[in-house]
Design a protein that fits this description.
Blueprint: H1 2-11, E1 17-25, E2 30-39, E3 46-48, E4 54-61, E5 64-70, E6 80-81, E7 83-85, E8 90-91, E9 103-105, E10 119-123, E11 128-132, E12 135-142, E13 148-149
Keywords: Signal
Length: about 170
């Protein structure tokens, strides 16, 4: 139900926008599902937090809902840094601010300022991880250079892999 609401909210944005779903899989069954929208006619290659017209994330651990965050909750105090490569259809990772590979989606470098209740994501130089209810969740941390790309199925971004991603046919006997 939450996935459907996120997609509907994303599609209700400006008529001329590019909208994509994405999935992040952290350690220990942590994950987030999200969407990003930006102007369809965006002139550059790198979209930043100043360019997006829609953005939202929902956090999970297994089947347990952890929280959500979207641009509707953005305040001047929110940690909000975003880079998205429109050609690669991926969020640059690695955590280096100078190289444009740092991400802070309602979670700072200490991953502890997402609010209570709250949810956020940080792609820093030590790792990619989440914040839940104002607390850094170390158990979610994965390598900072792990790719974060657009999902094949925006309606179910963390769903099963498309058939093309499955191994080839097996030979019998």
């Amino acid at each position: 139900m939450i996935r459907l609401l996120m997609i509907c909210a994303a599609l209700a944005g400006p008529a001329h926008s590019a909208t994509y779903g994405f999935c992040w899989r952290g350690a220990n069954d942590y994950r987030l599902e999200g969407y990003i929208s930006y102007p369809d006619d965006f002139p550059g290659r790198i979209v930043t937090q100043d360019d997006v017209t829609g953005f939202g994330i929902v956090g999970w651990r297994g089947d347990t809902y952890l929280g959500r965050w979207s641009l509707k909750e953005l305040t001047p105090e929110t940690s909000w840094v975003l880079r998205f490569d429109t050609r690669a259809l991926a969020f640059p990772t690695g955590g280096d601010r100078l190289l444009g590979t740092y991400q802070a989606w309602n979670a700072n470098g200490r991953v502890d300022d997402c609010g209570d209740p709250g949810f956020g994501f940080n792609g820093g130089n030590v790792g990619q991880d989440v914040c839940v209810n104002g607390r850094y969740i170390a158990a979610s941390t994965i390598d900072p250079t792990t790719p974060l790309r657009i999902a094949a199925n925006p309606a179910d971004p963390c769903g099963p892999a498309p058939m093309s991603a499955l191994p080839g046919a097996r030979r019998h006997g």
